[in-house]
């Protein structure tokens, strides 16, 4: 896949990046009238991305450096893999650009719209830079721009304390991740003498340590267990279109890195595969289990991103492990699964986040226990959200199913063709593990759709909600159509992957999607025709829900989000010490309490037992030792600088 | 060619008749087990015909999901019954991959998805209760279902059940998988000891709570769906079991499998007559047997290839 020819698509790509630069600058200007222009520039950039993804020829783009970079070129490279991910960025970017104006209207007075536009433009440009980077230096530069711009976007509503806290946690997580990544890149450079990814070939096991550092860096960005803590805090805090981009696309850049360096590059080793497999399994179930606990819709979606990242890592693990055992078909299918599911997840997750944004904007709350009955108030949003939920639950034949089917199939291929019994058993158990994840996901998103959109409104806001602005609806419906289209067109997507030579087996997709859709569709139409024929004479009577003869049901008698998840949450209760404290008050507290309150408690052991003590220790250390170093004396600081400089020079072998 | 056509025709005929016959057998046997003469043998079929004539009452709270659920359920269930090799005769489109295990599991999930949403759609506490329990049960059974059937199809190297279930399977694997599948089926079909379809006590209801608001034609469609699903699940278990004990030839014989399905119905009715419904909190540990058996089956299949 490596190539050193320049591509004639360079100008188009530069133009796309330029569009985002223009959008950034225009967005910073205060005049409101320019926002149309800003949006148009961003939209053009995204459309150019999609065009490049489909038509671009492979090759390099080298820019004249603005400053001397010690011989490092400002070089980008278009190849099949970067085209795939550029396509993902563009496909999510277009609806987000359409959605944003309507959403920003709802936030009027609370945020400066221009800043959100600018931040998003930088984010899009930076993500494109990451997936196009030809060498590690350009990669890191884009990576950092991506981290900073997304930090600023998370902090959009910085008037709120919770948002500021989330933004700082996110910033901390990105710093730690980047530190590992940069250390790994420098080490790899030291071993190979080149910054270019395609020159990174290693002898023997020399790649182990840099590979481990780089892997940690990517996993922290992707939000895999146990580095996922920032994700459910940061993503819900950002404005919804931003969460859509972050959850849908930004964390996929880490998957891109893993595919580029580990799956297709020379850093991949069996042990990496096993680690990815293990972390993927844990992330998948862990993420969705915590998702089930959530009441905040956006937090639920964020935890589900942890789950989906888990599935992607699991598939990457299958790819590497089966390659090391020479099972080419499984490795091929798993690689296809990673790429396809990354695309699918970015589509349906951004759809769901945009839906959550519409709900937030129109019903003024994201707390599921205060929502309900929105399907009648917001029919279009409900329809699009329904498709998103069905798709993330992998209901056939939507796109979520297509990606997961590839994962299942690769695990099954491992199950029958692996050379050793243990490995075959692992393949079969993986099938069950993915099925368990699937069952939990279904429960989680049944809760999300059923509680939010069906039944009766649980609060005044929910009962007064109205449909979102046309632009927002159009964006969501476009994504919903993409979900359906990618599901039905899965065989073509696989062929496309084969044509881009990302997978080597053109016959890897052997599921007759069309036959199933056709068969099921005919039967559905027949059932519908039968029923409407019967109903021609006797229309259904409309009456109230059965209330046991006690008079009208209040909305509070319905199951809430919390109670829906109860049976499952209890099943896994040991994992997070799930407890409900019911407190009754009144004269006879036990039998006839006048007020009754229930409080849920759960403890995430990872946070309470590992991270909190670590952070506390760090704080104690900084208060004791480091505060003393910060004496506020400029002489002392100068001394530190000189000592550091001398140390670096000595390490570099200059002195 | 004509053999295949006759096989397919026989399959379609059995899909149409066997489920109702099975429902009749179960109802009559259960009545006898309880010491009463019971309704006429064909009463379940007559009930269906009666309900199809009645118009239904729909709650004003509901959205399109509630009205669509019976239709989706019927369409997908009939499709599954047509493509799955559960009667011993040749299912339609055999070997084309439409009976892919994962596709089947997710089509079943789609049926459940609509059923649960329809229950939540009514806005009643019953619906929510049934929905939440149904979701929990599906989490419990899905791993066992997938592992068990995948282990059984391991030796034929294909996920296509229309081929996998009809090719030679190691007896141990077949029997373990069939047992795992039967336990999962009891839960999926809401039978004893996991759920009692005849009770109307809130504490114990699962499936009944989700369909409480249905009446008339839509109820008839749902009941027919349940009948087909029952026969289909018993059929697959019978195919697996017969395949393990007597080989693939017997497993593709409609007479043997048809008898097996009816026998399974008789066994279920007797079992339901003598067993009690489990406390809801003890259901998970019962259903976990399914997963355990499936993992054992996978172990045997993987190690002793």
Explained architecture:
The complex is a heterodimer of chains A (655) and B (305). Chain A is mainly α and 655 residues long. Chain A has three domains: 10-193 and 201-516, no CATH class; 572-601, no CATH class; 605-651. Helices cover 69% and strands 4% of the residues of chain A. Chain A is built from 23 helices and five strands. Chain A has helices at 10-28, 35-55, 80-106, 113-132, 136-154, 161-192, 208-222, 231-237, 240-263, 270-293, 297-324, 328-363, 374-377, 379-392, 399-417, 421-453, 460-463, 470-488, 490-499, 513-534, 561-571, 605-629, 634-651, and strands at residues 59-63, 74-78, 541-543, 579-585, 595-601. A two-stranded antiparallel ribbon of chain A has the order 1-2. In chain A, helix 2 (35-55) packs parallel to helix 4, helix 5 packs antiparallel against helix 9 and helix 9 packs antiparallel against helix 12. The longest helix of chain A has 36 residues, at 328-363. The two termini of chain A are 43 Å apart. In chain A, 54% of the residues are buried. Chain B has one domain. The model of chain B has no long low-confidence stretch (mean pLDDT 90). Chain B contains twelve helices and one strand; from the N terminus they run ααβαααααααααα. By secondary structure, chain B is mainly α. Chain B has helices spanning 2-33, 43-53, 64-83, 101-121, 125-153, 161-164, 171-188, 207-210, 216-246, 248-251, 254-274, 283-303, and one strand at 57-59. Chain B is globular and about 55 Å long. At the A-B interface, helix 15, helix 16, helix 20, strand 3 and helix 21 of A face strand 1, helix 3, helix 4, helix 5 and helix 9 of B. Strand 3 (541-543) of chain A pairs parallel with strand 1 (57-59) of chain B, so a sheet runs across the interface.
